[in-house]
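Q: My labmate handed me this sequence with no annotations at all. I'd like to see what the chain might look like in three dimensions before we decide whether it's worth expressing. Could you predict it?
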Amino acid sequence: MTNIIGYLRPDFNGQNIQPQFDQLKASGVSKIVQEKTAGTKRNRPQLDKLIMEVQAGDTVVATSLYRIADNSKHLLEIIESLNAAGASLKIIDNGIDTSTAHGDVIRMLLGAIADFERQVVRERQAIGIARAKQAGRYKGRKPTAMAKTDEVLALNTQGLTRQKIADQLGIGVASVYRILKKNTKPRKTRKKAQNKAVDKPKRIERKPAREADTEQLSFF
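A: Here is what I predict for the chain of 220 residues:
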């Protein structure tokens, strides 16, 4: 059995949610999932739960794009997650319905918009860095974990675990392992001394050959 599930999110200023409720009911939803607070992309527990529980054929309905997503990238993530579960998304105000033949076109368009927004952000960052360099305010990227190699090695000699070193220095435990692996010399394995002495070949002393008699008997 397929379900039509409405998603309702209140405003930050606490405006009346009744208009959203009425729109969702008029669209034929069987139930409404409501966030307790306005929330953000990282704090929408009801939306996360809804996406995890939808089944094939279900439709999630929201009154507007603003109610369900923070930006085009977030919206694309929601659509892809619902699509993977066999569900669809419907936006009342914009007339968007990913279950129709135009659903693929909508996903392609949103993907292009999300890529465009990423490029704009990167360009703005590059402009900001260039201006900061000209003004002498650019400090560059924050030092990586490798910049804390000496501190990692010092704490390691104190007997701290890898995880405690990472927590104390504010770096990842994987970085701690890489630093220690790179800066710790491998132990050399000593060869066990052979118990049996190698028998040297005995030197055979040869007796000097008897010299032939130089004098011969003369019979004349």
